[in-house]
Each structure stands twice: as C-alpha cells, then as structure tokens.
Amino acid sequence: MALFPARSGRTEREPMRKAQDEAVRLHRTIGLLPAVCFIIGTVVGSGIFIAPKGVLMNSGSVGLSLLVWALCGVLSLFGALCYAELGTTFTKSGGHYTYLLETLGPLPAFLRLWVEFFFIRPAVASYVSLAFGRYVVEPFYAPCAAPTILIQLVSILGVTFVIVVNCLSVSLASRTQVTLTFIKMGALVLIIVPGTIALANGKTQNFQNGFEMHALTLEKLSAPRNEPFKVNIPLAIIFSMVTVTFFYVLVNVAYYTMMTPAELLLSDAVAVTFARRAFQGLSSVIPALVALSCLGAMNGGFFGVPRMLFVGAREGQWPAIFSMIHIRRRTPLPAVLLLYPLTVLMLTSGEIYNLISFASFSRWFFIALATLGMLIHRYRFPLHPRPFKVPLAIAVVFTVVCFFIVGLSLYSDPWNTGWSCFLTLTGIPVYYLTVQRYRLPRRWRRVFSNKQLQILLEVAQQEVQTY
C-alpha cells in the first residue's frame, strides 16, 4: 500500500474532482481570446454604423468629429486601465456591482443593479436591436422608408435569438461571440479599405476646411456617447480598447472620404449609404455584416449583465431566483430570461436616439462612481494587494471627465437625463424597504422563491462555492 502513495492520493481526489465537475455551478470557461471578443464585440455594436451622424451633427465639422472619436478612444483607454485595476483587485465575479459593493458599500451597489435591470440593459439592448432590425429590413425597401412595425418585429427576433443562445450554453454563447466579432471586424475592414484607397487617390475634398465650426455650442458637447466597458483581464481590456479606437477613427475617415458631410447627415444608416457608394453591386453585404455586428453587441451584453444580477442575488440584494442556474446547462437562466420582457417592452416603445440619451446618464454616472470608489479604496486601504495599478493621474482625469459628462448631460438634455436620474433615485426607497429592513410583502417574496417556478425553469442554487 505504501509503494504508490501519489497514485493513491490522486485516486482519492479524482471522485472529488468529478463530483465538483458534475455539481450545479457556473464554470469559468472564458479564455483570453473569448474575453477579447466579448469586449470588442460589445463595444463595436451599432454605434460606429449610426453614431457618426450624431457626432458630426453636434460637433459641427469633419475635423472636430474625428478629434471627438479619437479623444473618446483615449478616454476609453483610461477607463479600461481603471477597470483593469478594479478587476484584478476584486477578483470575485459581478463586475460593476462587486466594485461598488467593495468600495462604496451596499446602497450604490444595489442602485447599480436596480438601474441595470430595469433601465440600462433594456434600453441598450433595445437601441442595438433596433439598429439590427433597421439594417436587416431597410435594404429591401431602399430608397423608400421601411415599415416601423417590420423593423420592430425583426428586432424582437434578434433579441430572442441572443436570449436563447445565452440560455442554452456558456460555451455556445462564447463561440457565437468569437464568430460574430471576427465578422464585425471584417465589416470594419471592408469599410476602411475602399476609403483608404480613395484617400490615397487624392479624394480629399471633404477634409478641406475640416475644422470650420458654425453651430458648436456647450450643450452639444455631451451628445457624442461612448459605448459600454466590459472587464475581464488587463491584457484583454487594453488590447481591445486600442484596437477599437484605431478602427473607429479609420472607419470615420473612410466615411468622409466617400460621402460629403451633408450626405452623411441625411443618412439614418450611414454604413448602408457608404456601401451603395463604395461597392455598388455588393451593397447588400455591408448591411448584413452590420446586422451581425449588432447581434454580437447584444450577445455580449446579455452574457455579462445576468452574471452581475446573479452575484447581487447571491449577496442577498436581489431576488433569490436570480442566483439560480440551470441544473444541466449551467447557465444563469432566470437572470437572462427575466431581462427579455423588459427589453421587448422598451424596444416597442422607444426611438434609437432617445434610448441612447436615456441610458447614457446612468451608465456614465455609475462608471464615475466605480472609479471614484477605486480612488477612495486606495486611500483607505493603501496596503491592499493590487496586481495592476493604474497611474493616479489617469484615474483622476477619467473620474473627473465622467462626472463632467454627467453634469453636461443634465444641462444639454434635461428631459431624458432628468427622467434617468429620477428613475435611478427610485431605487433608494426600494433598497431600504426590501434589502436593509427586508419589509418586502410576503406575497412578493413567494413570487421570487416559488418552488413551482424553480421546477418550471429547472434551476437550483449552486452546489459548489465559486468565489
């Protein structure tokens, strides 16, 4: 018996390891490539194919609009570095929620869950899905306007597809994201190449007098919106943000090479108009690729946000049903599934630019709070292990700029921003009644802890602690 001690120990551990593998729990199966694809795939959604119109409209000139895109890229990189520190300092899953919980306490963390579930994620998914529907439908009706109801129906189909993928399998969602990210980067290359060739051939007339500004005002400076951050590991974050910034600037240069500013302002689907100019016989290719890009952005969002809700429920700040996972598929099915009706409701009642404005205030506000919390945590706990530490000047600049954007949003668009602010604050009484003092009516508790609902969804609590 003593001749093979190592084999005996390994043999004893194998059943334990097998039991853990078969236990109901979320598996960590996202490597570096999928992490990069989730970040790039979420950031590169519909914005680069629609937002150039809004950026040009509010900046007032070609040159300044390109500068805005470049500066937004630098700002995103600063934010990426801050989130790299947060992600390596607090290794538990949960993203924004965990960072706020660890640095600023339970109330800001709960408010993040509150606005993410009821407002931010449905609004973001809605405008990305509407862009998906528009790029699928409009090529069949050009040059006439496509029916709004048809765009909404196709958008709902896109959301449904993404929800099903994320309910079925983590690996399926990961493979889907990798595939869609390569497709969307291919779409950006298809836009960049003809624009670069035309620019090299001397087509530079649209860049002449590029910094003439006729209608730039303070309230318009906050109109260009950046896209969301997703956090995994420092290398994935930094590589992703540098890549996205580089591609975004080149794509905008390509747009202005092939289209005049006036033509760009008249287009609601900039990439479609570009495709008709650059590809002619292949003009339907770009809209199809853009639609797939939007699917990738939706998939990344519906992959990340349910896990934040999952962690919030695990911490006791969100209904317990959200902390359960499917017993066979190992996915946070309730958290994914319960986002669906809110997204469809907002999709059928909103317009793209209003949805962007509505969601932007809360998103920027909580990004600013997260990095402010990081600075406060540094001051309070200077000896806490930080495998990656962003330079203090970068963290301070990013935090100040984020709060400036929040204030400027309130000034430039008080209606949508005010509503977003009010709806965020509605979470405060909810927190004190349902979390701190746990005075949720018994009937409501039964809704979220109903055994029949668990049986119907085939979900259970994790059997192995993963944090």
TrEMBL record:
One of its GO terms (molecular function) is L-amino acid transmembrane transporter activity. It is found in: Membrane. Keywords: Membrane, Transmembrane, Transmembrane helix. GO terms for cellular component: membrane. The keyword Transmembrane applies. The gene is si:ch73-352p4.8. It is a multi-pass membrane protein. InterPro entries: AA/rel_permease1, AminoAcid_Transporter. This is Si:ch73-352p4.8. The chain crosses the membrane at residues 30-50, 62-84, 118-137, 149-170, 182-200, 233-255, 285-310, 355-376, 388-411, 417-435. It comes from Salarias fasciatus.
